[in-house]
Amino acid sequence: MREQQRTASDSSVSPSTDTKSSTDDSTTEGFVPADGAQARPIELEAPGARVLVTPLPSGRNRVRVQRLDETIVIKFSACETAYDLDLIRLILEKKGPGHLCDEIARDESPQYTGAALKWALLAYLDDEAFAHTRILDFGCGS
User: Fold this and answer.
1) pLDDT tens over the chain, length 142 residues
2) pTM score of the predicted model
3) Fewer CB within 10 A of the terminal residue: the chain, N end or C end?
4) How many domains does the chain have?
5) Is residue 96 within 8 Å of 88, Cβ to Cβ?
6) Does residue 135 sit within a domain?
7) Domain containing 48: what range?
């Protein structure tokens, strides 16, 4: 996959980015400047979309997916993750840009799957039916 460094002044970066970019041209992939400034976004090539991964001072990464092809459906266009660039790239290759942040949220966000399970189960039983119980979920196997 092709990767490019982008600066905040680059017109391809969304104007909704609310953090400043490092002005040091020596910024390398995954490097967070010592002054706490945000590193430059790394662009991952994806069919029909632009994926920007920005290393954060906390050690996490901000992922933004911008649709270029109007036929692509993107469930979540942004997320923050503890995943490193290699894992983000692998998920992008396997799931595509439309499901990148959705796939990350399924694993990292307890609210994402927890809320879905809660409402699915409570559609059939009251809260009290689950008091002092444990649920074994076999999953779908995929």
Assistant:
1) 444 443 333 333 222 223 333 333 333 344 444 555 558 999 999 999 999 999 999 999 999 999 999 999 999 999 999 999 999 999 999 999 999 999 999 999 888 888 888 888 888 888 888 889 887 776 665 5
2) 0.63
3) C
4) 1
5) no
6) no
7) 3-130
